[in-house]
Structure formats: C-alpha cells, structure tokens
C-alpha cells in the first residue's frame, strides 16, 4: 500500500529566456523561450519537479502558472492523495465542466500534465526509485535520441553540428516553401552517412494536395517518418489516403488531447508513430498508457518534446519505461532552460543517452543559473 502523501505547497516558477535567433515553424515564431516549472513539496520535505507546456501563445506561461496555483493546487493541498495515475484521472474528471465553461481544454490539460509529472517525481523519490523504474520494473537504462528543432534553411550546418556531438538521427522542419524545402531535403538525404536517419516535420503546414505531393516526392528518400503533413483534425479518410500514398511512416500526436483521441489515432492505423507530449497532455500517467497501447497495436511511441530540461528528462523516463524502438526528441537549438539542470544531461553517445542516475527524475533545475530569467513565482500553500 502506498504511504499517505500530503502536498503542503505547490509552486509555479515562470522563466523567459531571450533568443538571439527566433525559433520558427510553419505556423508561428517563438521570440523568446518560456518555461513553467512545477515544484511540489510534501509534509516530509520531499520535492518533486514538473514542467507545463507553454510555448504558444506568447503570453501563455503566466496564464498556466496562475491556473496551477489558483485552480489545481487547492484541490490537492493538505489532503491524502492517491497514486499519480488515479490523481491524474481525478483532476481530469474534476475539471471537465470548467473546460467546457472556459473553452480552455489545452491550458487545463497542460497544467494537469505538469502537475502529474511533478507528482510522479515526488512519489518516485519517496519510494527510492527512478521515475522509469517506478513506472515499469522492465524499464531500460538508456534511450535512443534524435536531434530536432532543425529549420530546413539551417539544416546542413545543424545536422553537421548534431552529428559531431553524437546524434545519428535528425529531424528537419519543412512546410515553408514547397519546392525549396523539397530540394534541400533531397540534399540532406544524399549527405547521410551509414546508420543515420532523416525525418521531416511539416507542423500541419501543408494543404491536402500539398501533403500528397510532398509524400509522393519524398517516397524514395527513406525518411524515418513524415510528421504532421496536414492538420491534425483532418478526417480519417484523408489520413488513410496519405498513408496509402507512401512507404514513409506518418507521425503525429503532439496536438491530440484526451484518451479517446489517441485511441482513435492508434486504431485507425494511419499513424505509424505516436507522439504525445507529456508536458502538453497526460503527463507520465496519460502518456505511458498511450505508449503501451501504441506498442500493443504495433506502432512506435516517440514522445514529442519542445521545452525545458525537466520535461525532456521526464520524456526520457517514460520512453525507457515503455520500451520498444522509440526515440527521444531533443531540440538542439541553444536553450539554457533545457541545459540548466543538475547534474548535466543529456550526453549523447552514438545516438544514445543514459537516463540520469538517482531517484525520481534524477535531476533538478539549477535555479541559481536561471535566476536572472525568472519572471514570476507563485506559491500555493494555504490549507484548503
């Protein structure tokens, strides 16, 4: 039986890191790097860390932080709590009417996901286990990682840089200029070395016809996958049509919310690679269940992630617990919010990274290094 756990404080820490070069996708541009960390502390002094997805809109980080301390924290402080999975389901169900009332399905899912991540970290630390082992006794100790966040215009340089620090798999962003992107992708493919794989991500940037044309034109490149070639809410007929046009596996999942959506995506068979983001929906509780379902159906589980260091490490633990042939996404653009964790992580060797040693996540944010970028800290600690 799980020891009685009582959370006595829940903090939301907001950071904003200025960027020398904005991060661009087919749908928008990040002018700075935001992050929201969740810090939970129990009545024994055990601390757990989580991360809430907040990349868009630009004002989203502060909103998520306030949502955590004003709405989610009062539901959990100073009461005996169930297991992480049961509490995740409880919080999701308890906020269903609020989600309908506000229309904010994304923000609530993201805040609950970040809380779930921190609660898993805390409970694993209390149990003296790594997060991966707390989720599965069969968890691996290392995962394969791929270099991501590579704009097609910068890809030649960035792939070379990623290769030099140990990566063997690379994902480039397309969906900006059809002909130019296609030409550059072909050049990248021609320069691959034995054992290396190239993936492409359109971030929902193509129309149906453009998606069809791009998949046909790249069918002979042996891409590891084509991610979100069209809008995620396109009907099943279009997704099935796209899957039938090419030998390239289709990937998606970062923009799906809720167990039914993932169940449908897995059952349809159009997506060969399932990519939930543990800071955006589900946390470890929801994403591990999706990973298990995906693997049982013969799909690959490759967690999406584009954020700071806490969520990245959590994604690695979930992947290690899930097993299989999945890969960890690591955005290789400069990002102190990703790098300012102790101990230093990840270190890539021949495309693989070892999980951090230690309890829970095995890392903590380096708040001293991040102090000049912290813009807000909200604390919920009153008895309800």
- How big a fraction of the residues is strand? 15-25%
Characterize the overall form.
globular
Which CATH class of the largest domain? Answer: Alpha Beta
Beginning-to-end CA distance, first to last residue: 26 Å
Compute the number of structural domains: 2
Range of helix content: 25-40%
Named CATH topology of the largest domain: TIM Barrel
Annotated CATH architecture of the largest domain: Alpha-Beta Barrel
Cofactor: Mg(2+)
Protein name: Mandelate racemase/muconate lactonizing enzyme family protein
InterPro entries: Enolase-like_C_sf, Enolase-like_N, Enolase_C-like, Mandelate_racemase_C, Mandelate_racemase_N_dom, RHMD-like
Keywords: Magnesium, Metal-binding
Question: What does this molecule look like?
Answer:
- Helices cover 39% and strands 23% of the residues.
- The protein has 14 helices and 16 strands.
- It has helices spanning 60-72, 84-94, 96-102, 105-127, 131-135, 155-164, 178-190, 208-217, 236-245, 259-268, 283-296, 309-322, 336-339, 367-370, and strands spanning 7-24, 29-42, 47-52, 142-151, 169-173, 197-201, 226-227, 250-252, 273-274, 300-301, 327-331, 341-342, 348-349, 352-354, 364-365, 374-380.
- Helix 1 crosses helix 4, helix 2 (84-94) packs antiparallel against helix 4 and helix 10 packs parallel to helix 11.
- It is globular and about 60 Å long.
